[in-house]
Every structure is written in C-alpha cells, then in structure tokens.
Amino acid sequence: METRQVNLNGLLNREDISLVLTRLSDNGFPVYVVGGAVRDGLLGLDPGDVDILTQADTGTLGKLFKDQKTRLVGRSFSVTLVNGVEVASCRTDMDFPIADLGMRDLTINSMAWDPLTRNIVDPFKGLQDLENKVIRFTGSPGARIQEDPLRMVRACRFAARYDSCLEPESLAAIRSSREWLAGRTAGERIRMELIKAMALALPSQFFTLLHNTGLLSLVLPCLDRCYDLDGGPFHGETVFEHCLLVGDALPARQPLLRLAGYLHDAGKFDAAGIKDGKLTFAGHETRLNAIEKDLAQLKFSNKETQYMLSLVRAHMRPLTGESTPRAVRRLLAMLDDLGLSHRDFLRMRIADKKGNLAKSPYTLSEICVRLEKIRETVSGQTAFNINDLKISGRDICEILGLEQGPVIGKIKARLFEAALETPELNTESALKKLVREIKI
Q1: Which ranges in 298-439 belong to alpha helices (H)?
Q2: Residue of 57, 234, 377, 440 with fewest CB within 10 Å of its CB?
C-alpha cells in the first residue's frame, strides 16, 4: 500500500469541513477525507463536494454534532449530513480505512487523506491509475458491478471526464455484465448520470464508450441504432457521428439542450428510405416515438421530455438570409407553440450545421443576419400566439351573437392566420371588421 504526503490543506480552510474533522479528531475518532475530493485535489481541481469517513457510528455523530444541523440519509448505507457535509461511518471496524475504501467503485475514488499526517492512503493504486489515465474498478470488477450496476455507466463517465481508458479487465466485466443495468438500476439514476455527462468537455467520448461497452443499447437505444447508419448524400459522416458532433457543439450550461443535440437525428433510423436511388430521411424530425420511449424509461419529466422533443421537431425549420418576414413570423409562431425560445432554436441550428462534415459551419456574419431577422420581427406587433390577438372570444361572441363553443375557436384561428400574414391587421378595429365579414 502506498502512503504519500499530499497538501490538501485548502480543505481545512473551509469552516464546515474543518469543524467536522477537528471535532472528530479531538474526541479520539480517526477521520479521513475520501473519494472525489482527494481525487480532484490531487489533480489541482476544486474538490466541490467533500466526503468524510470516520469510525464514529451514526448515534455518536448525532451526539457529537447535536449543536449543528444534522440529518441521516441513505437507504442501504447511512450517511450523516453535518451542515451539508457527508460524514460516513465505517462499515467495519477491521482494517480501517482500507476495508471501507475497498468497497468503493473505482480505484481513483478509493483514496483517503489523513488531515493530521497529511498522508494519502492509497491501497488500490488509485494515484497511479490517475497518473496513467486508467479507469479501473476497485478490487474485483464483477463484485463492484454486482453491488451496483450503475457503476458501469459511472466508469464510462469518469473515463470521458479524465480522457482515460477503461482497464481491460474492467472493460471485459462491463461487457459481460451489461444486462444487469436494465433490470437492476432505476431509470432516475441513469438519467442523473446522463445529466452529469452533459457537463463534460466532450460528452461524445462518454457516448462512444457506452456504445463500445454495449451499454448504449440499454441507456439510449434510439441513438445506439444509428451507429453505422449512413448520413446520406448531404453529410460526410454517419448519423451517429453527426449526432455526437452536434451535441458537443452545444453549451454545457444547458444540459437538456445538449442532450437534445445528441438525439436530434435519432429519428432518421425510422425515416430512412430510398428515392431516385438516393438515401433520404424525409420527415425524420417527426419520428419521435423511439426518442420519447427512451426518455420515459429514464424518467425524464414530461416538461423535460417535451422540451427536448420540441427541439427535435423544430431543428429542420429553415432560417436563411433570404427568409421573408412572413416566413420568419411563421417560424416564431411555431416556436411559440412548441414553447421554445428563438435562442435555443438558433443554437441547435448552428450546432447542426457545425456537425455536418460535408458543409462549412455558419460564419459569424451569417449568424448575425439570422439573429437580426428574428429581432426585427420580434420588435414589431406580430401575434405569435393566438392569445396575442387584440380581440377576445367574448368580443367575437358579442359581434356575431353566438355562445362560446368550437365555432368561436375556429374563427379565432382564422383571425390568427390573417394576422400572421399581415401583422397590421392585429388591431381591435381591424379584427372586429374581419369578424363581421366572416361567413359562418
């Protein structure tokens, strides 16, 4: 076992961390900082969340920190939150802390830092794996996976995060155990891994690893089936490659938008056909069933799902330097109906073009032209939603002497179409005049 002195003293400057470490040590309980905080500290990164391991049991922790805000969380393994800091009690008194470290998922997460000696306890050579850019399960890969199959997805995410490779035995274990993921892991937990992956510099590496291990067919089968699908005559890459390029080109700060980028062309598998001897994907943006099924399996909320499906529906709608004001108005009305902002629509369009290796990406001036067309239209009095009309259903009822009902809704829809075509008509007087001229 390697023990190396490492300076992670910055952790002691945090009042919440220092309080826990000092009080446990002063009361005679060995205590260590473990897991991700040690890993990231060794890499010179901000540790973020900090996990603490001690020999004090949960009852003792409650007494020691009774003057602090504490809460017991976890099902299979109880953790005490002290002012939000996770403090885990050892699972066995034998060989502390090595026995507990041996139950963690990956070697790079199985290191501990002693705040008294400033030594790193590294029984599974996690530091070596970190330096060699290797992702390896701690101890027996099969045993670690059997304890929690989600660890297979986590291994892929960490490999992508640190630009590392999966150690051969760990890779083989994932491939042979991958079916455990579907039957033994809640969709919500897989969803959380996907969201975390969206913050990576290149989530495409994560999706590629998922495919290479066979996990992607269980996580997002709608995307996995596109792996060898020809991109067609207008692309220089496969559909799978295109989806990865588009997702990588979208901002990490918007995880749902980015995930929609990775899925935006997944409908091409169902839409693929041959016309005049050429591969086509007509209407692929409407082939949403497979995408929707996968998102439901992963327990995305209805709101999240509809947002991503709306982005897929809208991504083929054209907007060019030659788009007429009428076409722009109709585009914005469609986006309003889908609940999308024109900014997210443009972000997807720009990424879609950038991910096409057969074409050049938009230049800054081309982007500015499109944005200006939208701004000019938005700044006017155009009705982009039927509720933007300067006339109400009650007004129509009074003019025509009718009761509220489907007929009134149809009349409002006709007025909305007229206002889209000619924005100047969206005034109370003009619309009332149109109502009087309508033949029912």
Answers
A1: 302-314, 325-338, 342-354, 364-378, 393-400, 406-421, 428-437
A2: 440
pLDDT at 416 (0 to 100): 77
The answer to whether 255 and 307 have CB atoms below 8 angstroms apart is no
Whether residue 47 contacts residue 40, with contact meaning beta carbons closer than 8 Å, is answered with yes
pTM here is: 0.86
Helical (H) or strand (E) element with 4: strand 2-5
How many angstroms separate the Cα of 325 from the Cα of each of 249, 315, 316, 378, 423?
29, 19, 18, 11, 10
User: In this predicted model, which residue has the larger pLDDT, 424 or 342?
Assistant: 342
Please enumerate in sequence order all residues whose Cβ is within 8 A of that of 401, keeping only pairs 6 or more positions apart, or say none: none
Q: Which amino acid is residue 57, in one-letter code?
A: D
β-sheet bridge partners, residue 279: 274
User: DSSP for 91-158?
Assistant: S-STTTTHHHHTTSSBGGG--EE-TTT-EEEETT-HHHHHHHTEE-BSS-HHHHHHH-THHHHHHHHH
- In terms of DSSP bridges, do strands 273-275 and 278-280 run parallel, antiparallel, or are they unpaired? antiparallel
pLDDT at 381 over 70: no
Answer whether CATH 3.40.47 is correct for domain 221-380: no
**Planar angle of CA 125, 127, 130, nearest 5 degrees:** 115
What CATH number was assigned to the domain covering residues 2-129? 3.30.460.10
Architecture of domain 133-219: Orthogonal Bundle (1.10)
Q: How many CA atoms lie within 13 A of 57 on its CB side?
A: 3
Residue 316: CB atoms within 10 A of its CB come to: 15
